[in-house]
Design a protein that fits this description.
Length: 72
Amino acid sequence: MKTIFARLKKDESGATAIEYGLIAALISVALIGGATTLGGKLNTQFEELGKQLKYTATTSGTGGTGGTGGTQ
């Protein structure tokens, strides 16, 4: 019985699996954090682009038709 407990005490395969799990969790947290930050910055850029396009369409006097004036 002592030899079984001694062998189990020396076995570190479970600890290795836990370490790999922790590494995978840390990588996942880093990826999620990076994606969240990037998503926020992209959202801000698209909002600014939309505002600029809307401003350009209203100040050019074309009403958004592209200046063609209809069919010819």
